[in-house]
Amino acid sequence: MKANKFFDPQLLSKYNTSGPRYTSYPTALEFHDEFSEQDFIQAVEDSPNRELSLYVHIPFCHSLCYYCGCNKVITRHRDKADTYLEYLAQEISSRAEFFTDYTVKQLHWGGGTPSFLTHKQITKLVSLLKEKFTFADHVEMSIEIDPREIEMNLADHLFDLGFNRISIGVQDIDRKVQETINRVQSTEFIGNFIGHAKNVGFKSINIDLIYGLPHQTIETFTKTLNIAHQWDVDRISLFSYAHLPSRFAAQRKLRDEWLPNVQQKFALMKLAIEKLCAFGYDFIGMDHFAKPDDELSIAQKEGTLHRNFQGYTTKGGCDLLGLGVSSISNIGTSFSQNVKDLKTYYQAIESKENVQEKGVSLSQDDVIRGEVIRELMCNLSVNKNDINKKYNIDFDQYFIDDLPLLTTFIEDELVENSKNFIRVEQKARLLIRIICMSFDAYMKQHINQQRFSRVI
Predict the structure, then answer these.
(1) Which three-class secondary structure string do you get for 80-122?
(2) For site-directed labelling of 212, which of 9, 12, 419, 439 has its Cα 20 to 30 A away?
(3) Strand 235-240 vs strand 288-290: parallel, antiparallel, or unpaired?
(4) Mean pLDDT: which of 40-44, 284-288, 451-455 is highest?
(5) What is the arithmetic mean of pLDDT over 13-23?
(6) Quick check: pTM over 0.90?
């Protein structure tokens, strides 16, 4: 795939607006507090799936990264994690009762940073999960790691417990950028840790990179990308820094004049995509890169790529159960989210109340539109006949009010709308979120799209 296909400055500028990342449809903005515990239980009973993906949220971080918009708790006191794990254990036990006939095919720990936990705490949590849920023999177990506060033997410990995928937050290796965002880390250690993890036996290693951070330049980011190439990791996630200081207080420490302007940020994105493709990675979806023999690359080629709250995945047939503060579940035709505040989470568990704060039961229209959007986000095409057969509709008639919204994309030769297919051209890959908004029934209600990040 030639990277130069993706860059038409005029088109990218024309469509560089704000929009959802569509890790769900409807998006989390549509979740509401009328969604009850009984709604959740009913969703489990009605779901045709009996395979499960578990997400566990560990909210703690040792220090505050100023760019971060995640739900986290900053502390140096590891004993706070002991308290959290005690409450989390109660939630795990109560939730597991509803999933006795499910098999866990995938487990992912996110945060915060799960590597905040000690080896003992990690072991205790893995043991509890395996005690309460039925795990498949070949389960995919992944964990996010902050390389600043770990020892080399963490890789050995995680592998011995069954983890086979790790994701390391790198973001940028330039010292000035790191100091500005309050995330100083050792490039040498990261490289050594990646090498050690490979030797231990990890089958997949991912790193996260961010473009658009303060003081990033073409020269400095080129060095970051070249080092990433030397590490020879299996996957790379490339994210655009979303500067939303009105929503995230820590971002107010980053002055606007330190940030790349729109043209500079575009150049950073272009540089990254061109170099990563030249290094031999396949471009997955809109922001991931994977080696050609990676499961994500194979799934994209076969048209079976899926998307959920962890990003792109190959486990599309699983229900998703989120555990811990702020975590999100996708069970059957429902989405739900736990309370985001740690104190409230503890209080709910102590009083035996539901830690679920809000959610939504999907209508048939939500299900249909969600599948169309997911197919576009993952595979850049929708087979109208497949949708017609699956939902007993006439695609063009059903979306008669939405298809005209594609006209501008069609005129710019970004989208083809034929009798049997909607296809998105490769050069429109970076605009896929904006194209998907054409099928979003809720977007028409959101006059102010600034709740979402920009495409670039």
Answers:
(1) HHHHHHHHHHHHHHHHHHHHCCCEEEEEEEEECCHHHCCHHHH
(2) 439
(3) antiparallel
(4) 40-44
(5) 81
(6) yes
**Closest of 336, 325, 420, 431 to residue 382, by C-alpha:** 420
Range of the domain at 123: 29-320
Classify residue 392: in a domain, yes or no.
Answer: yes
pLDDT in tens, 151-186: 999 999 999 999 999 999 999 999 999 999 999 999
pLDDT of residue 449: 46
Q: What is the CATH number of the domain that holds 196?
A: 3.20.20.70
Whether residue 268 sits in one domain with residue 164? yes
Q: Nearest Cα to 144, choosing from 122, 105, 113? A: 113
Among 408, 437, 440, smallest CA distance to 17 is for 437
120 and 6, same structural domain? no
Per-residue pLDDT band for 372 (boundaries 50, 70, 90) equals: very high
Looking at the fold, whether 147 and 281 belong to one and the same domain comes out as yes
Of the pLDDT bands very low, low, confident and very high (cuts 50, 70, 90), residue 453 is low
Same domain, 46 and 181: yes
User: Is residue 246 situated within a structural domain?
Assistant: yes
Q: Is residue 451 part of a domain?
A: no
| CATH code, domain with 387 | 1.10.10.920
Dihedral (Cα; 373, 378, 384, 390), 10-degree rounding: -80
Tell which of 320, 351, 371 closes a domain.
Answer: 320
What are the phi and psi torsion angles at 171 (to 5°)? 70, -60
Q: How confident is the model at residue 1 (pLDDT cuts 50, 70, 90)?
A: low
pLDDT at 17 over 80: no
Model confidence over 388-398: pLDDT tens digits?
A: 999 999 999 99
Answer whether residue 329 is part of any domain.
no
Q: Which residues contact 280 (CB under 8 A, 6 or more apart)?
A: 291, 292
Q: What phi-psi label fits residue 214: left (phi over 0), alpha (psi between -120 and 50 degrees) or beta?
A: beta
Do residue 232 and residue 378 come from a single domain? no
Mean pLDDT of all residues in 304-315: 82
